[in-house]
Write a structure and sequence with these properties.
The structure is a single chain. By secondary structure, this protein is mainly alpha-helical. The chain is built from six helices and no strands. The chain is globular, with a radius of gyration of 19 Å.
Length: 191
């Protein structure tokens, strides 16, 4: 009973921190405006770790790899702690188990990224109907534009209604169902 509560706490805290790191990385990738409440909150929340990691991990092609690798490390640590708390025994080949843990952590980051895109698309669609001039509107636009643009080129608006958010969400669901779920199950079997 106590171990379940600890597992829940660890998964929640580490998961939220991984989401914060991923959001920070993604906002930097799409060159989202920095002066908004979300970006400032993420910077304040993650700066203690990101600044130290940047000393060791260089950027690549103007990408902040330190933030992305930190998110992966957070996921790896979370998986290892949960395995230890649940008293799972790793396979006799410990090297294969650690490769599987690294792969599972990377796949969790992919899954979290897809969820971030889905939430941003839904939030932007709702905000465009309710309050199109909200301070978060430019941030959400910069986050979703790379995905929506691909569908907006192919599918014209129907009755002045843009259906591209619907298609982005469908593709995100397919990505979660097919490759991500299949790869996660394959990696779990290696443990």
């Amino acid at each position: 009973m106590l171990s379940n509560a600890l597992v829940f706490l660890i998964e929640t805290l580490f998961g939220l921190f991984a989401v914060a790191l991923l959001l920070r990385f993604y906002l930097q990738c799409v060159r989202a405006p920095y002066r908004n409440p979300l970006s400032e909150f993420l910077a304040a929340l993650t700066d203690f770790a990101v600044r130290r990691a940047r000393r060791i991990i260089p950027g690549l092609w103007q990408l902040d790899l330190a933030t992305l690798i930190l998110a992966w490390i957070v996921e790896v640590v979370q998986i290892v702690i949960v395995i230890l708390l649940k008293d799972y025994s790793l396979s006799p080949q410990i090297g294969v188990a650690f490769i599987a843990i690294g792969a599972i952590a990377a796949l969790r980051l992919v899954r979290l990224t897809v969820y971030i895109v889905m939430v941003a698309v839904i939030a932007q669609a709702i905000l465009s109907w309710i309050s199109p001039y909200h301070p978060l509107a430019p941030l959400l636009h910069s986050m979703t534009a790379p995905f929506l643009r691909r569908f907006q080129r192919i599918i014209p608006p129907i009755g002045n209604v843009d259906l591209s958010p619907l298609f982005v969400i469908i593709v995100c669901q397919l990505v979660l169902m097919l490759p991500v779920a299949w790869l996660e199950m394959s990696a779990v079997q290696l443990l």
